[in-house]
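Memo to structure team: turn this sequence into structure tokens by end of day. - J.P.
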Amino acid sequence: MRIGAIHRLDYNEAIVLTHDKWKFDAGGIPQYAFLLATARDVDGADRDDDEVLLLRVDGTAPLAMESDLHAVREEALRAALSSNGDASPSVVLDVSLDPFTKNRVSFTGLRCRILGTFYEDDVDGKKRLDFGADVDNFYATSTYRVLKPIGEGLSEIASYLKPSDREVERVRIGSVRYSATRRRAKAAKQDDSAVMINIHDFIGTKTGLLGMTRMGKSNTAKIIIARTFAVSERRRGTGGTPIGQLIFDPQGEYANPNTQDGTEIAAIGERHVRIFKFGASSSEAHVRPLGINFFDPAQVEAVQGLIADKLRSDGAAGYINDFAVTRFTDVPNDYSETIRAMRGRLILYAALIRAGFTLPSNNAGTSQAFSVKLAIRESLRNAITQKLGKNVFTAAGSRTSSIKGGDICSLVDKIIELRDAGDSDAKDFCEDVRWTSTEPIYTGQTSASGKVRGWRNLLDLKDFHNEATDEDPSEEIYRHLTAGRIVIVDLHVGSPPIIKALSESITRRLLAKQTLVFTSGQEPPSIQVMLEEAHNLFSSDKYKDDGDVWVKLAKEAAKLNIGMTYATQEVSGVAHQVKANTANWVVAHLNNTKEVQELSRFYDFAAFASAIITSEDRGYVRLKTLSSPFIVPVQIDRYDLNLVNEARAAAGDPALIPSPRKA
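Reply from structure team:
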């Protein structure tokens, strides 16, 4: 729809001359509206040039004769006030101008930024719409017409993707929305021009969801997750590798339905979604318990990792570092190392018991009463038996003995007592690093630095102990991810220390597994990770610590084929390096200038600063994707049952039927 002409033009900015009637007929021209400027071809007045300038309305601009027109208006008001006996505003201000003057004062100017140039390009003998983010030529302003795109034309502009080697699959994410006030757009039926994105932009890259709480970040994340799942299932159907998705869910909004959506990610289906949470019933196949059996030798690596993380707050770094890197698992075909691992687990279990961990009733996966195996010299066994006044050893093989759980602490106490008394067998028993690095945890003291918190550090981990768990959940989660499932770690129940330790343990295992595949010369499987409260994970101070698991994830995600979506309301709280490597930006309402100023350092978000602060509508965002050459203001669609059913259809599952509403 034509709305005017170019009044002034340079390489970066255009002043558009328009008229009140043209604006009214076009359904209004809000700030940030896209406009097109096309020039008549210099070779013929009946043809357009083969380039179209894309403009964005940034504000108003004075016209050359505007001051004169204001003077005419002022003079008319003065004359009315002088000649009319009734000086009330309704009479004076409604004074009629002559038609010629009224028409002249109805012209206004729009200040527009030139975003670039659309043009046709020949590629392999085919015409293709291309876009350049600048202007390579301009003509006299009198040759230009300015138009407001609507409907499919506007959708084509807002959905434009830069040509690239990246796979393309367009999906709808919302509609163009220029302003918080939408009365004219709705009246003119211009409020639903679709914005299509390339979903592959969000796979294997970093995406930032930025905005205040309850502004629609999670809704956008759900759309991305559901669309990514559909891509994954289509890949699977053609023999490709599926995409796993790991969601850390601190509020339980991805695992459970809420009033806003009426549905949840888990509705995609039990075959495709696994939910890990505290207190889960083992009767639900797709809902798995969060927790590990701290007394299961098969899960001791996970136990070691959790304890090492907790110990880092202790002052004695020496024994902590030794504990973190030593091995507590049996070594096949190496009996000597296995013996030492047994001894290390003995004192580790003693420390857990001292911290109040409940002993399991049975050995993992069996009906036998809980016990530990130990290889110990007969002379040391006899000395311990004499000290205890009873025999706690039961033969469990030609070289090993079995010790019941209730006797573990008393056994460890006597071994330490005998060693301190100079018993050579006890000294030899305790000399391995597994024992020496774990003993300070059990006793709460070190020879070098005196008392430490030791076993008291383990108190926060007690809620994570679940004797019914038959496998480290980190291992199970990774297996589901490589199978292309969506894994939701429901963290809305649990103490903060447990949630922190659990999240870091799962992420550390994910990185270790992907790194192992990468260093073997193979392509790691595609995995997407969704993180909330990113300002707590990627702060500038933390980013200096290469040992931090979240920093490692941010730095190594790309090479390990891990895509990352992070959400935060504190843009300034996320390290600059993370933002600098963010490919997709979804920016909702932010309520202070500090955050907007930080955001303004990237792309062209400074132009939208005032709207980001003032517009508090849920789902109203400024969107910049990897394939889009400019920022698009968008009203994000709601994640609903239709999107769930699209995802289910991609997996070959029947559609869900909405539940009838109760009267």
